[in-house]
Design a protein that fits this description.
Glucose Permease (Domain IIA); 2 domains; 6 helices
Amino acid sequence: MRRLIEHAEAALERRIPEKRLFLRSGAETRYIRLTPLSQLAAASGTVLVLGWTIVISAVFLMDSIGAGSLRDQAQRDLALYEERLNAMAAERDRRAEEALAAQERFALALDKVSEMQSALLASEERRKEMETGITVIQTTLRRTVAERDAARRELAETVAAAERAEGHGEALRTADMEDALGFLIAALEETAQQRDGIAMAAEQARREVEHLALEARLAEERNELVFARLEEAVNVSMTPLERMFRDAGLPPDRILEQVRNAYARPEDRLRPIGISTRGTLDADPVESRANEILAGLDRINLFRIAAERAPFAQPVHSNVRFTSGFGNRRDPKTGRTRMHNGVDFAGPRGTAIHATSEGVVTKAGWYGGYGNTVIIRHAFGIETLYAHLSSLNVREGQRVSRGERIGGMGTTGRSTGVHLHYEVRLGGNPVNPMTYIRAARNVF
């Protein structure tokens, strides 16, 4: 081995001669002998270190360029998301205005229906009174005609008796005949006047009945138009509410049953009409349609009560950035893929955090990696969680209302920056909070 080294040094000495490095210290002088192999090793090491430095610098430069591109892409995505959020907010405002206008039209239509029903009942009563009056007039007319016929028969009998009478003087007979004829003529004239008056009253009554029938028909047509508009308004108002609860994973029928049993007060319920508008106890089509509309309004009212007790709202009302969604993602701490059970909103420290629905605070304090946390229990087995808060404005056991401030945005716990981590749990299982936020935007 030594010989091999010596041969190598002899071969390299022609190109790399041996060098000596002298070191002087006081009166002594020492030197370091640099053989060709040691010089070659030192040069190789220097080249390797220089090459490694160049490669590392290139890698860091490429990472820097890639990070800049990712930041630009993230900023473009953020601008696009904010634009979509503004468009969705404008659409929500338009929907809210349409719903308010529909409610106003509905209230006005209800007033019109009430007025029309009152007018219809009054016209029904007048029609019955007119029918009773016509019956009385016809009875009187028949009695008068009978009296006239009896008077005619009596006149004929009197004339016959006068002709048969004998032994009386001509003057007496003529006087009696004139008296009888005068009485009969007066009776006939009075009867004729009564007949003409009764006939005129009957004609006037017939015209009034025809007018009442026309008014009733027009009222029915107006009622048909009003009922059609009311039914359309009920359907337009109910469809988005049912879709909102269905999208949130809450079966509408089960939710309404819970509201009826637990939250709806008896005085808030709309009762069906129990008496027919035709004045009878038997149900008619008008009453059935009115009851169907009332049932639809009652269902909308129950949906309203349910919506007030479910977290259909956004926890942050300020201008914030949406930074992370629900589902699997790359953990910013470990770099591994893991489940993210909520959504994150980033903003300035201390930004107000609001309760998304009324409920009872079950947790208000430090909660492991969540840091300062507030958990609120709502109706229908729903819980909401607000994590990484910088301050708390509620305490455990406190009942809060929708929109009430519960804390400030922070970065406590396992956090990489100031943000709010917001979760919605249904039956203890995390669900996508954006489902509730988007469902509320599409209706309110």
